[in-house]
Amino acid sequence: MYSQVKYPALQPFEHVGAGFRALKHPGPRSFLANSSAIEMSPEFGLDVRGCNLAELTAEHKDQLALESRAVVWSSSGINRTSSTVGPAFILNGLVASVLCTSTPLQAILTAITKSTWFTNCSFELQPAGLTTFFLLAQPKTGGDTLYSSQVLNFRSLSPIMQDFLRTLKATHGRRQPAFEAGRNELWLNFLYDHIVKCGDHQARIKWEPMSVVIWDNRITAHTATYDYAHMKDLRHGARISAQAERPIPAVGSMKMVN
Predict the structure, then answer these.
(1) Cβ of 15: how many Cβ atoms within 10 Å?
(2) How far is CA 201 from the centre of its chain?
(3) Where in this chain does the entry annotate a coiled-coil region (predicted)?
(4) Which fold has domain 18-78+88-156+198-243?
(5) Which range among 96-100, 141-145, 180-184, 231-235 shows the weakest confidence by mean pLDDT?
(6) % the chain with pLDDT above 70
(7) Residue 172 has pLDDT above 80, yes or no
């Protein structure tokens, strides 16, 4: 269920990544000092427990922004019971939306596979960067979210394929990107298939009460699972994204087109 409220176009602004400030810290992962951090896989996914997210210092928040993996903050310590549920809002570069999926769309239920990998707001000139998501209500079991590292997915390709992909241009609409004529279906299907099959670059988040997931939307894809649909349970969540910089061409000679 999506809000029908219309908002004006997002305005250009100069983005400064909080993670850059953390590079100057003597211990860029000191925010984990008083917590238990479980590596969900060797290179992607971190489950943090025993630390109150609401009590992080400004320096610790910068360090969290530097993390390139999806971070799930279990038992975050943030009280969400009094959260106001309403339509999307835009404020100072933050884009927030409330998602309610008590019953998945019929198109999803009847599909052979119900998982659709995507990133948020990638059609914007300055797409979403750091993003948080949490559930206000959830089924007793099921409704997990899977995250995939686009950095690791790209690195796993051959050097020749990496160099080739850097030369491609795409026009990104609200539904999906489109490459130049004649290349669209072939290369998009190849890349989508690569994301789906790279299970060693994925982390699966099993939601717990008070969990919050934080990830870099610029380099991370995700998908929900709809295995709870037959139980008629409510899965009700909220997502908050901070706008980031405009994407930079992979090859210096290429120019961005408005």
Answers:
(1) 13
(2) 14
(3) none
(4) Double-stranded beta-helix (3.60.130)
(5) 96-100
(6) 76
(7) no
Mean pLDDT in residue range 9-36: 86
Q: What would the two tokens of residue 159 be?
A: 């050097």
- Please provide residue 154's backbone torsions phi and psi, each rounded to the nearest 5 degrees: -70, -45
CA-wise closest residue to 129 among 240, 14, 13: 240
Residue with tokens 């349970």: 233
Q: Where are the domains of the chain?
A: 18-78+88-156+198-243
